[in-house]
Amino acid sequence: MIYDKLGNTDLKVSKICLGTMTWGEQNTEAEGHEQLNYAVEQGINFIDTAEMYSVPARQETYGSTEKIIGTWLHKRGKRDDLIIATKAAGPAEMTSFLRNMPTFSKAQLKEAVHNSLKRLQTDYIDLYQLHWPERPTNFFGELGYTHKSEDVGTPFRTILEGLDELMKEGKIRHIGISNETPFGMSEYLLNGKMYDLPKIQSIQNPYCLLNRTFEVGLAEMAIRNNVGLLAYSPLGFGALTGKYLNASPPNARMTLFPRFGRYSTPNGIVATKKYVDLANASGLTPAQMALAYVNTRPFLTSNIIGATKMDQLKENIESINIQLSDDVISKIEAIHQENTNPCP
Known about the structure:
The chain is 37% helix and 14% strand. It is of the alpha/beta class. The longest helix is centred in the last third of the chain and has 16 residues, at 266-281. The two termini are 30 Å apart.
């Protein structure tokens, strides 16, 4: 396994991070524990979850993923060799049942952290992230920005003050953002510097062969400010494995939940076929080529993989050992030029 520093912290996180959002919906507790045991055996020390998981978010299942991790942590009997990341949900219809519509006020963040700690059965969270912006802006693939309001919700300074209080209480160690824009990143960094408040150490945004929009604006900011990317959906909800090209596999996410169509647009399907064909012609599996490409990015801190089956998990983790040739990378870039960001 390869390890990178998390921002300006002293934490070294595995280049492959274990994503967990299917646990409690598509995966049972026993399956989640099996994945955790195998991942740790392979050198993974970084585990990512969220208070709203499992996905899709439902009142009946929210928090179930953290609970599965918590029972595993309790049974394992060790904690300090792991880096656990979770997230506070932002306001949205899908999370309206959380805290009577979640915000990032000091009181709500304290409540959210308390509940996550209880479910995770731990005394501290290594990386606490804001799952998406509280203010009205573009995220989750929304295009065509329309300015809706001068209101940014809870002020950035107030959010950082709330997180600072939780850090001083020892409940969280470091902070990060997710699904953020260049404006949001700059405001968190600026307010942190101006008011001597904690620095954000990471940004968890989507990044894969079908969606490289992070490279426009955020990549430079990430590198210059040492706020590394935690790339989610590196396989585009599994689309880049090629399994959806000719069929709708039973029990797969986009089969079970058709509303997750972000990576199955007509242009996305065209690009996916080209990437799958390139991988096959190069003696690589489509999944490992897609993941190995993400691993090469200079702004990346960790690549968040997820799987519902153990064979998928093993294949994904083994991508850390794949070195793409210059020829393959050149051909990937050629496909990207012809099919630029078909699934933003």
